């Protein structure tokens, strides 16, 4: 089918696509059009990676916009939101406006409402719904990218419930769900009342197989010589062989550490294939990478990049990831060692894909677990660049002949698993039941069960009773913690329940926070021994007001607050490494007076372990808020700069929730919580809060200004410009911007010389 034959799309589209080199639709795209995707029909498209799902989504969204509606594109990862929005911005020249919703969970609703196409994560959409976004009513089309992730126990339920709410709210909403090839695409289509395109077509041939001994064994039964030869590892030999042919390789491994080590090894191979021009370009790229942050990760990555290889994992800063991805697409970086996050979405095709590790450590299972077929096939799908490579090749690695056979059975010949809903679990339902009631999607228990009956879970389960039982447990929990009130069949959210729903925190996090703030420091840490109050409950505001003995209670310390939010289920804690247990147990006793809520005893194993992990996380946050260098923090806790930022952002968000809850419940400590939050936000000690609040100042500059005697925003406005300039290391442009942001009357630095005496601090 030619693009000119697609009904319903705006008239400028065929020409635009032709300019992009797209004239003929790929077969699965043509099938989607035949099933009405450009005319408002809902559709599930289950097709392999890189076979043009995005265009299917665009046909649906653009025809929806052409007929006056809005379109929403739901992405699974925040990192993908920006990438997708940039892709859709190509349509802005035709008057289609695009908005991407990132940033914090409560903001930016109105601005989004003015856009035609909106890109957001499912969590963001959920949050917008909870906060009453009105533009949702104008939606004509919603696209759910990587919908097979409803199977993910952490994030799947949110996607499932969000799609349910959107469909309930907007009659006749077109839902286009894009999925990797899965075992039960028909069930997904049933759930969404959608047409189905289930295809294994790929734009470029993919050969899959296993490397064993001296050869690649491929799925068509052929073998190709590929001796390990002088190389240390199979993957090094494969990278070398691919480069002989001018191709690039993507190697998937199971941990960050392995990715880093593998990249260093592969760099020894890629290094030998670089010409002078490439070496120069790579030197430039390495310098850019070192600019991003002053850490060991930055250095290691730059070292590998100089030699033509790189690693890619979630511990990298976003800027690092983008630089690496772009250089790989430009064929400058010849090999990437990546953790599986790269397989999920980001567009980085390679001639060859090597799945080096097919087992991964799984905390829930307490050991190594084989990857899902679905995941391995998605990694495979990254092989082969249409128009560039004659074909793609994707292989696993075997050590023994038995393993060779096992891998063929397990992955090469195997069909992907069926997608199963993970909704009927308490943590998922706790948050979604509260939100469903708080936002009025259900006002009775019956209504709630009816709503849940429309979920994928309900269409899949053969035990309908289970959902009802878990729902009742959750309702009881929410009522016990004063988030919900029940009156017969009627359900309503309390004020704090509404707030918790809007703040987008897990009700259990909110209960933990409220309890900690109410009880205060846990000086009397001995367990009360009854062992069954592991679930926190708290007093209502009025009870509290009644026994409030004035303002004598000391404010919680930042460290106490960091620990409190770190032990909620919304914070991804740091693991304890060997030796950490003793170190943090000691810290727990040392700083006991600051920790909020009831401390577990050492004999409550799981809780004690959790308490210590949270303590480690809290210590990281305290180090950050005490102006410790990023590099030192990364080293001390064995994390990357991306992790530090992740922890800081989560803490900021949870402390914001804590502040709001403290204010709502009149707990009196809201200002202290706010100060602790600001310190994490800026990464500074108390005395720099005012200065660091000036845009473009940041933690390092604030400290230099402070050391030069400029202690506040007001000082900055009055300061001698030469002192400011010296403190900012003679950077005129920066100094002007900073003065302007501080509200200086005349920020110009013309004719000002840096006062050499004041720049005492060489850092
Ligand atoms: P998916 O989302 O299925 O992984 P993409 O939508 O990213 O795949 O498409 C992969 C590549 O194929 C993109 O570069 C896209 O421009 C190109 N493409 C899509 N449809 C066509 C087509 N009909 N003809 C030629 N190229 C296409």
Explain what you see:
Strand 15 (359-362) and strand 16 form a beta hairpin. The protein has 5 domains: 3-198, 3-Layer(aba) Sandwich (Rossmann fold), CATH 3.40.50; 206-412, Rossmann fold (3-Layer(aba) Sandwich), CATH 3.40.50; 426-503, Arc Repressor Mutant, subunit A; 507-683, Sec63 N-terminal domain-like fold; 688-758, no CATH class. Helix 11 runs antiparallel to helix 12, helix 20 packs antiparallel against helix 27 and helix 23 (558-566) packs across helix 25 (605-624). The strands form 4 sheets. The protein has an 8-stranded mixed β-sheet, sandwiched between helices. It has a 7-stranded parallel β-sheet with strand order 3-4-2-5-6-1-7, with helices on both faces. The chain is built from 33 helices and 19 strands. It has 763 residues and is an alpha/beta fold. It binds adenosine-5'-diphosphate. Adenosine-5'-diphosphate binds next to helix 3.
Brief account:
The protein is built from 33 helices and 19 strands. Helix 9 packs across helix 10, helix 10 runs parallel beside helix 12 and helix 11 packs antiparallel against helix 12.
Could you state the CATH homologous superfamily of the largest domain? P-loop containing nucleotide triphosphate hydrolases
Strand line-up of the largest beta sheet = 10-9-8-17-14-11-13-12
CATH fold assignment of the largest domain: Rossmann fold
Oligomeric status of the shown chains? single chain
Q: How many discrete structural domains?
A: 5
> What share of residues are in beta strands?
5-15%
Overall number of strands: 19
Mean pLDDT: 89
Q: What is the architecture of the largest domain at the second tier of CATH? A: 3-Layer(aba) Sandwich
Percentage of residues in helical conformation: 40-55%
User: In angstroms, what separates the terminal alpha carbons?
Assistant: 63 Å
The CATH class label of the largest domain is Alpha Beta
Q: How many helix segments?
A: 33
Net shape: globular
Class computed from helices, strands and strand pairing: alpha/beta
Computed Rg: 28 Å
Low-confidence sequence ranges: 524-550, 758-763
Largest sheet: 8 strands, mixed
The kinds of small molecule bound in this structure are: adenosine-5'-diphosphate
């Amino acid at each position: 089918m030619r693009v000119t034959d697609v009904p319903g799309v705006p008239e400028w589209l065929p020409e635009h696509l032709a300019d992009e080199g797209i004239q003929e639709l790929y077969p699965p795209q043509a099938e989607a059009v035949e099933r009405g995707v450009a005319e408002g029909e809902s559709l599930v498209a289950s097709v392999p990676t890189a076979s043009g799902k995005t265009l299917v989504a665009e046909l649906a969204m653009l025809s929806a916009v052409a007929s006056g509606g809005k379109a929403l594109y739901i992405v699974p990862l925040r990192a993908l939101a920006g990438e997708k929005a940039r892709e859709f911005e190509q349509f802005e020249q035709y008057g289609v406006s695009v908005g991407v919703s990132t940033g914090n969970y409560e903001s930016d609703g109105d601005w989004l409402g003015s856009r035609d196409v909106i890109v957001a994560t499912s969590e963001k959409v959920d949050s917008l719904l909870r906060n009453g976004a009105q533009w949702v009513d104008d939606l004509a089309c919603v696209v759910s990218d990587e919908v097979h992730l409803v199977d993910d126990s952490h994030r799947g339920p949110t996607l499932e419930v969000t799609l349910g709410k959107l469909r309930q709210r907007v009659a006749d909403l077109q839902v286009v769900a894009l999925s990797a090839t899965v075992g039960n695409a028909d069930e997904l289509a049933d759930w969404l009342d959608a047409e189905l395109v289930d295809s294994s077509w790929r734009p470029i041939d993919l050969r899959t197989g296993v490397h064993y001994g001296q050869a690649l064994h491929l799925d068509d039964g052929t073998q190709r010589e590929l001796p390990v030869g002088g190389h240390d590892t199979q993957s090094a030999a494969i990278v070398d062989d691919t480069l002989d042919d001018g191709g690039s390789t993507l190697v998937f491994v199971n941990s960050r550490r392995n990715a880093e080590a593998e990249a260093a090894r592969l760099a020894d191979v890629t290094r030998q294939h670089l010409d002078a021009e490439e070496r120069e370009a790579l030197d430039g790229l390495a310098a850019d990478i070192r600019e991003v942050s002053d850490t060991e990760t930055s250095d290691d990555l730059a070292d590998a990049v100089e030699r033509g290889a790189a690693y890619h994992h979630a511990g990298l800063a976003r800027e690092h990831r983008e630089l690496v991805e772009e250089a790989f697409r430009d064929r400058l970086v010849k090999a990437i060692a990546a953790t599986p996050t790269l397989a999920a979405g980001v567009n980085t095709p390679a001639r060859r894909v090597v799945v080096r590790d097919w087992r991964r450590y799984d905390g829930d299972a307490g050991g190594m677990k084989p990857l899902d077929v679905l995941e391995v096939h998605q990694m495979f799908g990254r092989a082969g660049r249409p128009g560039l490579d004659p074909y793609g090749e994707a292989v696993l690695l075997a050590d023994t002949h038995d393993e060779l056979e096992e891998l063929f059975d397990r992955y090469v010949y195997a069909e992907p698993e069926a997608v199963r809903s993970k909704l009927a679990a308490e943590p998922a339902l706790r948050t979604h039941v509260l939100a469903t009631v708080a936002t009025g999607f259900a006002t009775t228990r019956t209504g709630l069960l009816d709503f849940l009956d429309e979920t994928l879970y309900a269409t899949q389960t053969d035990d309908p009773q289970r959902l009802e039982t878990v729902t009742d447990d959750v309702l009881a929990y929410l009522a016990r913690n004063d988030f919900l009130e029940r009156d017969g069949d009627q359900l309503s959210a309390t004020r704090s329940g509404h707030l918790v729903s809007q703040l987008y925190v897990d009700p259990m996090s909110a209960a933990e926070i409220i309890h900690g703030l109410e009880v205060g420091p846990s000086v009397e840490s001995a367990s009360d021994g009854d062992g069954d109050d592991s679930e926190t409950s708290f007093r209502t505001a009025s009870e509290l007001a009644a026994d409030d003995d004035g303002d004598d209670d000391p404010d919680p310390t930042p460290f106490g607050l960091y620990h409190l939010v770190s032990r909620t289920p919304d914070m991804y804690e740091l693991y304890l490494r060997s030796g950490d247990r003793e170190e943090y147990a000691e810290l727990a006793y040392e700083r006991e007076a600051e920790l909020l809520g009831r401390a577990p005893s050492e004999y409550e194993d799981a809780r004690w372990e959790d308490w210590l992990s949270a303590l480690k996380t809290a210590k990281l946050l305290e180090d950050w808020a005490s102006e410790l260098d990023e590099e030192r923090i990364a080293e001390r806790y064995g994390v990357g700069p991306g992790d530090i930022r992740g922890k800081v952002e989560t803490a900021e968000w949870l402390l914001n929730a804590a502040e709001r809850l403290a204010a709502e419940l009149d707990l009196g400590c809201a200002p202290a919580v706010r100060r602790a939050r600001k310190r994490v936000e800026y990464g500074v000690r108390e005395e720099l809060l005012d200065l660091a609040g000036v845009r473009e100042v940041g933690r390092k500059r604030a400290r230099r200004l402070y050391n030069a005697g400029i202690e506040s925003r007001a000082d900055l406005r009055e300061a001698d410009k030469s002192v400011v300039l010296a403190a900012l290391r003679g950077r005129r442009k920066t100094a002007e911007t900073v003065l302007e942001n501080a509200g200086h009357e005349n920020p110009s630095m013309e004719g000002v010389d840096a006062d050499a005496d004041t720049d005492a601090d060489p850092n």
